[in-house]
């Protein structure tokens, strides 16, 4: 199946509308997507990590994706908005919540994606449903998230179970950017699927959105025991090597599907 320049999606109660797909590295599934959501007000903080230490957190059937021989992880505070099943309306107290995740970059059968070490969120329903339906490692945290007056955001999470926390503030600067071809930013941003270990099998969920738009950012991190808890060999957890700030994207996601048969195709 070839990648098409345009594709029709039925979103919410509206009529089908055209969304671009010429930027995608692989086609989205022909079947209908299952969820709609927005990822908004994101701060992307990235560190280079020791691949051997990262390996302990990644299923053996996934390959760690490297950029110029280096492995990275991203710690990302942001807000989820209007999370809802396809064609259903959002419900304010269920569909909107802060989320703080840590993601690694992996690949399987030629399709680069992300693998989440954790997704800390202030949503009891998500923290119950997503592990059940998608095997995503959601953990409940008390989260505070607000905009600041410098084009960025203030964020704080405290995991209810053990007090693991991320606390800081981001600032954006400069012009709005898109990732250049073959750049580190393209490697980190332009990924259109995620992987999970579901009942002992590696599964993939496709995620559609338009190309990321972002600004270079700076952060002031007060505490980061969230990233520290994964022992990834990061030298300074208060000073990311890369910071980007984005207003976000609208996202369509599909149910997970097994990758086990792909190697035999």
Molecular structure report:
The protein is mainly beta and 265 residues long. It is 11% helix and 50% strand. The chain contains 5 helices and 15 strands. The protein has helices at residues 51-55, 92-95, 124-134, 184-189, 225-228; strands at 6-9, 17-20, 35-49, 63-64, 71-85, 97-108, 111-121, 138-147, 153-159, 165-177, 193-198, 201-208, 214-224, 242-253, 257-258. The strands form 2 sheets. Strands 3, 4, 5, 6, 7, 8, 9, 10, 11, 12, 13, 14 and 15 form a 13-stranded mixed sheet that branches. β8 (138-147) and β9 form a beta hairpin. The protein is globular. The model is unreliable at 1-17 (pLDDT under 50).
Describe how the helices and strands are arranged.
Layout: E1 6-9, E2 17-20, E3 35-49, H1 51-55, E4 63-64, E5 71-85, H2 92-95, E6 97-108, E7 111-121, H3 124-134, E8 138-147, E9 153-159, E10 165-177, H4 184-189, E11 193-198, E12 201-208, E13 214-224, H5 225-228, E14 242-253, E15 257-258
Parallel strand pairs: 7-8, 7-11
Antiparallel strand pairs: 1-2, 3-5, 3-14, 4-6, 5-6, 6-7, 8-9, 9-10, 10-13, 11-12, 12-14, 12-15, 13-14
